[in-house]
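[retry 2/3] Phosphate acetyltransferase: previous attempt timed out, resubmitting with same input.
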Amino acid sequence: MVNTNTWQTSLSLQSFNLEVPVDDHERIEKVQEYVANYINADWIESLTATSERSRRLSPPAFRYQLTELARKAGKRIVLPEGDETAYR
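[retry 2/3] Phosphate acetyltransferase: success.
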């Protein structure tokens, strides 16, 4: 129990330091065990089972893919920024 009202308690919690020092192995292990007890592996698996994972591309790879798609479709890409020539 705390000796403050709900408002004061919530304000105090906002300034609560949640960091665990990297060299405090005992606390790290306790936090890991605590969190692991509340993770529902089936629920996490259900989140990823039906979702499609999109491939991440670097900016140059994205630009290449975009220009290739435009080239195959016979389209022109016009970007509002930059002074590059239009890709065909």
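[retry 2/3] Phosphate acetyltransferase: The chain has a mean pLDDT of 87.
[retry 2/3] clearing retry counter.
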